């Protein structure tokens, strides 16, 4: 069973595209956290999703959100991806898929493609919304902004 609404956000640390260790616990209590798992850097859907988060960053900052994208790609791959598309948030490298397994993110397409799931975490560290849509990356950012807007009003 995967992580669900009402569950506490698991604690984890991973390296970002700059090789810095990001500890998710550092944001709990201070920011709403958007954690999105995606299949792979530089693929059509994943690029579209990342650029949607990039383009909405001002709105997300105004809503007191920290965004982190997680895939099994290497730090170097994340660095190239972030530079190419001017991504303005942390991409975390989960090479062994340990965090993906911790969140129990389901795989799609006969288990061959890692799932695309976004978790909205409130400042108290609780999961308040889950978006699971492999084929509709736009849904992730739209729902995220709607949910966080309702949380802050």
Task: Provide a quick synopsis of the model.
The chain has helices at 44-55, 57-62, 75-84, 98-103, 137-152; strands at residues 13-15, 21-23, 32-37, 65-71, 90-93, 117-121, 127-132.
Describe the structure.
This protein has 153 residues and is α/β, with parallel strands linked by helices. The chain has one domain (13-152): Glutaredoxin (3-Layer(aba) Sandwich). It has helices spanning 44-55, 57-62, 75-84, 98-103, 137-152, and strands spanning 13-15, 21-23, 32-37, 65-71, 90-93, 117-121, 127-132. The longest helix has 16 residues, at 137-152.
Annotated CATH topology? Glutaredoxin
Structural class designation: alpha/beta
Shape: globular
The H-level CATH homologous superfamily, spelled out, is Glutaredoxin
Radius of gyration: 14 Å
What characterizes the major β-sheet? 5 strands, mixed
Q: What portion of the residues fall into strands of 2 or more residues? A: 15-25%
What pattern of helices and strands is seen along the backbone? EEEHHEHEHEEH
Q: Count every helix, treating DSSP H or I runs of 4 or more residues as helices.
A: 5
End-to-end C-alpha gap: 31 Å
Please state the second-level CATH architecture: 3-Layer(aba) Sandwich
Average per-residue pLDDT, rounded, comes to 91
The number of distinct β-strands equals 7
Helix content: 25-40%
CATH class reads Alpha Beta
């Amino acid at each position: 069973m995967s992580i669900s609404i009402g569950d506490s956000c698991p604690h984890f640390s991973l390296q970002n595209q700059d090789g810095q260790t990001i500890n998710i616990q550092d944001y709990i209590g201070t920011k709403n956290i958007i954690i999105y798992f995606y299949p792979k850097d530089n693929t059509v859907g994943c690029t579209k999703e990342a650029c949607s988060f990039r383009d909405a960053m001002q709105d997300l900052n105004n809503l007191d959100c920290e965004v982190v994208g997680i895939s099994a790609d290497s730090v170097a791959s994340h660095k190239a991806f972030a530079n190419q598309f001017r991504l303005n948030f942390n991409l975390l490298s989960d090479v062994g898929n340990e965090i993906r397994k911790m969140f129990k993110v389901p795989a799609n397409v006969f288990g061959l493609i890692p799932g695309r799931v976004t978790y909205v975490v409130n400042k108290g560290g609780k999961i308040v919304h889950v978006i699971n849509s492999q084929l509709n990356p736009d849904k992730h950012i739209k729902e995220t902004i709607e949910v966080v807007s309702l949380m802050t009003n």
